[in-house]
Write a structure and sequence with these properties.
This protein has 457 residues and is of the alpha/beta class. The protein has 13 helices and 11 strands.
Length: 457
């Protein structure tokens, strides 16, 4: 089982799983009416950060969603931002669409997709869907030009309080001023709610595809003061205590039944920026050392960082709850297939970008640039090894909550079948009652599989 998990994101294992899943997909029947589809993607969330996945962070709205639906225990992303987003929206491996690094080919974060690699909105349009985007993008080209009907594109992930790079329907907007009351997670939810309202008022006869991409809890650890205050003293017990407590809850839930991975004490950040790390002061540590080896200043500094991370996750849950409330108010919650997941595991990175870091500023404020680091990232990714950017499960395993009361009868159940982000396109097209049509004869077949059958069984 562990070997299957470690290699589940590679071609070999996923292709080997296709035979079994394709048979099931062939038998799966689309629903009688076309539902709405919503993908909620968060950034750098660890496997066990949610309450319903064993975490101590308060996520009641997501937990309630899981209680009314499903949790997948072996679902995989690509371990990094832009490859995962390309795979979700195209249905192809990131390497196939030049969004992961390949030798001698323009690729990676600056790669351009082949013309045949269309995004979900364009694939869904023939079946009557309107498509909405809100939040992070990190795909080549722009949302409206690639098929979305309405978009709020937040292109500045380093400034939660005063972003400078925002586009509305592909039109650049003025920067947000400091002290304006803006907070990215809330703003993304605000715009998503407005999109739902406008759709209901103007296009209620059409189903919608809604792609909500929160930028949290990616660094910098920027949090609202009231959210931070809620968790300020919650993590003083240290990362070993919280990792063991999460592992205990994971076993009680039945998510993972193997073993708790050993903490790799010599595994630090994936990239080395010693001059930047020095800006954080003497409370920072670059390795997940035993908690008892830290001095008082280091313990206080580290517990502060996890409190900020928890505050950001808590705020995601709060704002997502508002989106769910809006879906309910327009009578579309039961008729909306919702996927909630993360683009990769929690991050061990330690760095300073954009506006820099002021050690004297209030924790989590706009003038700071704290990062979670390997100690707490190890906790967030419990029970797995390593972190974002690695292809071990700490990097590629994502919590996936699926909710669709009108489409399947299972409630509060687990699904242990392996899956991958390339599976969203064939699944969503099947739910929409359509079939995938190639743009060109030489276009590869979709490598993913239809998960529809696993929703009920």
């Amino acid at each position: 089982m562990n070997n299957l998990r470690v290699f589940a994101s590679t071609y070999v294992v996923v292709v080997s799983l296709m035979v079994t899943h394709d048979v099931a997909a062939a038998r799966a029947e689309p629903p009688p009416s076309r539902p709405n589809v919503m993908i909620v993607l968060v950034d750098d969330l660890g496997y066990s950060d949610l309450g319903c996945y064993g975490g101590e962070i308060e996520t009641p709205n997501i937990d309630e969603l899981a209680a009314g639906g499903l949790r997948y225990t072996q679902f995989y992303n690509t371990g990094r931002c832009w490859p995962t987003r390309a795979s979700i929206l195209t249905g192809y491996y990131a390497q196939q669409v030049r969004r992961d690094k390949l030798p001698d080919i323009p690729s990676g974060g600056g790669g351009q997709r082949p013309s045949w690699a269309r995004l979900l909105p364009e694939l869904l349009r023939p079946f009557g869907y309107r498509s909405y985007h809100c939040g992070k993008w990190h795909v080549d080209n722009m949302p409206i030009s690639t098929g979305f009907d309405d978009s709020y594109y937040l292109g500045d992930q380093a400034r939660f309080f005063s972003p400078k790079r925002i586009w509305v329907n592909d039109i650049k907007q003025p920067p947000i001023k400091r002290q304006s009351g803006y907070y990215a997670t809330t703003a993304i939810a605000d715009y998503a709610i407005e999109q739902l309202k406008r759709h209901h008022e103007q296009h209620s006869e059409q189903p919608f595809f809604h792609y909500v991409a929160f930028t949290a809890p990616h660094f910098p650890l920027h949090a609202l003061p009231e959210d931070y205050a809620k968790y300020r003293d919650r993590f003083d017990g240290g990362w070993q205590t919280h990792r063991q407590q999460r592992w205990q809850r994971i076993q009680e839930i039945g998510l993972v039944s193997s073993t708790l991975s050993k903490v790799e004490r010599d595994q630090g950040p994936p990239y080395s920026f010693p001059n930047q790390v020095a800006q954080f002061g003497s409370g920072e540590v670059t390795l997940p050392l035993p908690w008892e080896q830290l001095n008082g200043e280091q313990k206080q500094f580290q517990s502060m960082k996890m409190a900020l991370h928890a505050a950001m996750v808590d705020r995601i849950d709060h704002e997502f709850g508002r989106i769910l409330k809006q879906l309910k108010s327009i009578g579309q919650l039961d008729n909306t297939l919702i996927f909630f997941l993360s683009d990769n595991g929690a991050s061990a990175e330690l760095m300073v970008r954009d506006d820099g870091h002021d050690p004297a500023a209030a924790p989590g404020s706009a003038d700071t640039h704290f990062c979670l680091g390997p100690g707490w990232s190890t906790v967030s990714n419990t029970p797995f090894r390593k972190h974002k950017t690695w292809v071990h499960e700490g990097g590629i395993a994502t919590p996936l909550v699926v909710h669709w009361p009108g489409g399947f009868g299972a409630r509060g159940q687990l699904r242990h079948q392996p899956g991958h982000v390339i599976d969203f396109v064939p699944t969503i097209l099947s739910v929409a009652g359509g079939q995938f049509e190639k743009a060109h004869d030489d276009q590869p077949d979709l490598p993913g599989v239809n998960l529809l059958r696993t929703l009920d069984d």
